[in-house]
Amino acid sequence: MKKRLLFVDDEPEILDLLQDIFHRSHCEILAAGSGGMALKIVRESLVDLILCDLKLPDISGIEVLQQAKQERPGIKAILTTGYFDPSQNGGEGYEKVVDKFIPKPWDILALKKDIQDLLDND
Questions:
Q1: Domains with residue ranges and CATH for the chain
Q2: If 104 and its partner were Cys, which of 12, 58, 63, 82 is the partner (CB 3.0–4.6 Å)?
């Protein structure tokens, strides 16, 4: 069965880029432009992994990942941002819900490997 990846970012060009990168990955790719949309997808679909930006227009990426893990405890969660490292700048508690933190800009090959590693550890 194909793994389902959910990419969450409020910048459409970032979502397009991620979809382009992963379109040959043998995974089903889902995308959301807001935290609320992401949580709706999590409730309606069996998502295996979420890559979520920290800054979203409605709720923070950490909140999205917390709620997603409450809905689906086995879901893998990656937090990403270009603003700061949450482990060093007031993102207390993020490590309880985030399996991996990846700062922007991404190294595409490393990003693909990190996602594959998390999916393989199911």
A1: 3-120 (3.40.50.2300)
A2: 82
